Amino acid sequence: MSPIIRFDRVSVTVHEKTILSDVSFALLPGEKAVLCGKSGSGKSSVLKTLLGLHPIKSGTVYFQQQPLTPASVQTVRSCTAYIGQEPMLAAESVREALLLPFQFKAHRDHRPTESRLIEVLQRLQLPVSILSRQSSRISGGEKQRIALARGLLLGKKLYLLDEVTSALDAESKQAVFDVFSDPELTVLSVTHDPEWVERCTIIFELEAGRLT
Fold first, then answer.
1. N or C: the chain end with fewer CB closer than 10 Å?
2. What is the pLDDT of residues 143-170, one digit of tens each?
């Protein structure tokens, strides 16, 4: 089996400051990996580099065995769900936020049914009534789970997660753990949550932009 993600001696410099230095690792489909380290160690920068948000100074990032280039980065983004600590839902209501991607040509033929919407919400311990609520009036933890629900509805297989359990209570956190126990989903995450770390099969330790 070939890696879905591979960093080969990747260094990244932003505003003349080196934020990643000679980073190498690989992640196979279905693996659950977590990036650990102190604040400022470069954890989130790994995710942003994969998404093409940071220019690579040296080395190569491979996605599905293809080198990351300005042209190929769109392929990465189309296959990936990135969920940060405060996701942007980009719609007035939760229902509109969930259905927003299905307005575009690429997903128009895969618009989910009402029963599918409800099923995904229930998996994530979200009430059906949340569909009619304003996006501006839901909590950070609810926003994270709505963003995750949108990824599931789109059939995303790769998830880049940045402190995705930080605003969740125990029951909601367990629901998220259960979703990502799916062997078909590949996860590269950033967290300080020891419960999340325990459930990951691979732990990458970062210190000052280097994998230790």
1. N
2. 999 999 999 999 999 999 999 888 888 8
Alpha helices of 124-182 — where are they, by DSSP H? 140-153, 170-179
Element (H or E) spanning 79, and its range? helix 73-79
Q: Give dist(CA 163, CA 166) in Å, integer.
A: 5
Give the pLDDT band of residue 86 (cuts 50, 70, 90).
Answer: confident
Of 212, 181, 172, the C-alpha closest to 199 is: 181
* 32: enclosing H helix or E strand: strand 32-36
The domains of the chain, with CATH numbers, are: 5-211 (3.40.50.300)
The amino acid at 150: R
Find out whether 156 and 80 touch, Cβ atoms under 8 Å.
yes
In degrees, rounded to 5, the angle at the alpha carbon of residue 58 between the alpha carbons of residues 56 and 59 is 95
Three-class SS of residue 163?
A: coil
- Measured from the Cβ of residue 74, the count of other Cβ atoms closer than 10 Å reads 10
